[in-house]
Structures are given as structure tokens and as C-alpha cells.
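Data availability (excerpt). The following record was deposited with the supplementary files.
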Amino acid sequence: MNPGFDMSILSGIPDQALGAEGLIFGVDEAGRGPLAGPVVASAVALCKPRPKGLDDSKKLTAKRRGELDLTIRLRCAWAVGVVDVEVIDRINIFGATMLAMTLAVRNLSTALGRNPDNVLIDGNMTPAGRTEGWRWDACAIVGGDALEPAISAASIVAKEWRDRMMLEAAAQYPQYGWEQNKGYGTRDHMAALRTHGPSPLHRRSFAPVSQMLLI
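Predicted structure:
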């Protein structure tokens, strides 16, 4: 994982994403709470027919989530935005999350060659007025990852993308158990922090990590 943000543009078939209400993107993020690793957002425009069994990624088994992730990325239009630790520490996790969403929507808009007619975002806030570069109509939906299929799909892609990044990071820093905890502050992760100190991929702006730097 490199400092800064990933601007990868990846998408499925644009014509399948258009509906009677125009082009709708669902957006969600993964990784606001961990002590290490990036925050990842995904934007998805669902294909027709949409994948069956979409739901909040947290409610799905790992096997089913992985299957849906592959289906979404093969059949639908999608993109990701990744904001890494250096940026998280500089602008805080809220700002980094809004930036990741902005990057994801921009990347998908670029890939499709057009802007969405509306963006549905999980939560109670959108990046509008909070992140430079956000220019799309958007609606925040509390619990949207379980209510709106496009947001559900985005939650799955974001979660799986971030998990793969943390598995890669775990091979570089095996002492922290990221292949299991994905950077969250589990008991084993905290014990490893006390023993080994923070790695370059730990968020130094987060209290449990910054406190270790003072020991």
C-alpha cells in the first residue's frame, strides 16, 4: 500500500447500469474504525438483472460476500477510491472517508464517460460541501447498506477490496495478525502493538497508536 490514494478505475458494462431514473450510483466505505490500513470506498451502478442476495456486507458470511463481490465486479459498473494512512493522519478519518467516496464516484464517472444522476450514500452525511471536488447530487440514507441494493453492492466491494489490501499488508508485517483482524483494535492486535510498536501502516492520529508512541 502506497501513501496517498489509489485512483484505480475499474468498471463493468455501462449500458446495463442505466434505468428509468437515470444513472444511480450506490456508495459505501470500509475501514473507518481500524488502527491500521486505508479507508476504502466503492461506487457501484447495478447491472440488470441485479445480483441476487445483496445485503449489508456485515450481514453476509465471508464466503457469500466473496461470491457476490466477484459477481458485482464481473457484471456491474464499479470503481474504488482508497485513501491511505498518510492522508488519514493528515486530514482525519472523517475527511479521509469523504475523500475516498469522492474518488470512487469520480473514478466510476470517468470510467463510464458520464456523471450519475444521483448518488445514494450509506450514513447520514454526504461529501457535498465537505470535500473539494464533490459535484454530484447525493442522498444520505441511514442504514442504506441494508436498504438500497446499490449501496449494499458498494459495501461488499469496499469490504472485500480493503480485506485484500490488509492480507497483502499482513505478509509484510506478520506480527500484527492483520490477516485475521484486518487492522481493527482486537486484543491480539493491541498486544502486538505493545510488543513491537506501530508499523508504518498504523494510524498515528488514532489514540491507541499515538499512546504507544509515548511509551
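Summary of structural features: Confidence is low (pLDDT under 50) at residues 1-9.
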